[in-house]
Amino acid sequence: MPRLEPKDRYTLALVPLSGCGGCEVQALRALALAPDLQKRYEVVYWPLVVEETRLPDEVDVALVEGLVRTRENLEALREIRRRARVLIALGSCAAWGGIGGNADSFNHRLSMRAIYGVERIEESAEILPRTFAVTDLVPVDYVISRCPPPVEHIMLTLRAIAEGKPVKTADSTVCSQCPRKMKPIEKLEFKPGLPGPDADPETCFLSQGYLCLGSVTTMGCGAPCTRHGIPCFGCGGPHHEIAERRDMDIITALARKIATLAGLDPVKDLDRVVKKLLEVYNPRRFYVFTFASQVLRGKPHGFAVKALVESRRDPVLRKRLEERARFARGEAPPPSPGGGEA
Amino acid sequence: MVKIRIIQDRCKQCMNCVRVCTAFDGVYEEGPDGYPVVARPEECVQCLICHAVCPSNAIVHEDYHETVIINPDEKLAERYRNYI
Ligand code: SF4
Ligand code: SF4
Ligand code: SF4
Ligand code: SF4
Ligand code: SF4
Fold first, then answer.
1. CATH (one of 3.40.50.2300, 3.55.40.10, 3.40.50.620, 3.40.50.700) for A10-98+133-163
2. Sheet of strand A84-90, all strands in order from the earlier edge strand to the far edge
3. Are the C-beta atoms of A167 and A160 separated by less than 8 Å?
4. A176 and B16: CB-CB below 8 Å?
5. What is the per-residue pLDDT across A236-294, written as a single tens digit (0 to 9) for each?
6. Closest partner residue to B12 among A175, A259, A267, by Cβ?
7. Cβ A210 vs Cβ A199: under 8 Å
8. Which ligand is the nearest neighbour of the Cα of A212?
9. Total-model pTM
């Protein structure tokens, strides 16, 4: 844990990379709602909040939002790491690549053509051939995960840093905050797509044969999705053991739990359950928020890499982009909206 | 002896721990309140597979046996260099 020398007031910067701005809004709300943090931190750089356009030479605490998509992002990240004493990766994009990491499914030149009708716009940022999570490129002191992270998580992190105390963390999963009742799985069969109105609102999605990433996702959100009838898609990022241990991956950790719920052996029947899962769900369904993460891509069984390769070769995704590119050039009618997928 | 604790706030009452335990007689039993109870902790072989299948990380093994692998320090190792 990096310690700052005791001071009344610390300088704070927020550096937005390629994100959606949602994490920035959460950070702004955290400061707005906590007068004590306003006293302890002076914002010296934050394009949304202050006019300063240059990164400060030195800063005590820097929050970084978004993933690295352009060369400009890469340079800004390296600079802020050099200049910041404490660097916080804010949100799933910075931590794991997040939603934006799914851009790796597409050829970026084709994406440009599909959106702007040209491969490159003069003076626009140079897009890198792949995306990166902030944590993959520079050493990071803290990760505040989730898309977006709850305001309280940002508050208590900034507060603990200002007080020189360790930040409290919990090591459970979303399931522990989910009110749904877990029951044994009667028959190991997975249903594609999302649960419809016929799904039982009080029973765990896994018990009903739907995919839910709650048991492999780090706790902290209060399980709002499963309370409202949507399975967890893992926006909080994988449980820290899955991230830290080389032998664990999202899909295998989940399959072990599912196997045991179904009365199978979590070791002997692991491959069988993984195979069944992948027969029904596209592998990228397990890496929605971690698609670009080198941590997951580096796992020995290579499921995240498989997800990447399958997406890149997916003829449907490619066809949709090509249709869009023709539309952007004015050569075709607007493409039909994309259909759902498992 | 190893101490096993179930954090009830987190427990989903799924009984994965009861189903999976590799001890001959099983360490856990389903309790009357629907939560697992640690009935035979002395049976535990510390395989920790129950941790891997618990959906909410609700199981804690305290004081479990840790093996220390002794490696001589470099100076000591140096003394063995010319033996044999
Ligand atoms: S983590 Fe979510 S809220 Fe934050 S920048 Fe990324 S997409 Fe936006
Ligand atoms: S797997 Fe999903 S639905 Fe089931 S208890 Fe966990 S979070 Fe809730
Ligand atoms: S339930 Fe899952 S997807 Fe929903 S907010 Fe929590 S971690 Fe994110
Ligand atoms: S560590 Fe192994 S033997 Fe011990 S309680 Fe867990 S499953 Fe049973
Ligand atoms: S496996 Fe975990 S959640 Fe399930 S009953 Fe045992 S302690 Fe509770």
1. 3.40.50.700
2. A41-45, A10-16, A59-65, A84-90, A142-144
3. yes
4. no
5. 999 999 999 999 999 999 999 999 999 999 999 999 999 999 999 999 999 999 999 99
6. A175
7. yes
8. 2
9. 0.92
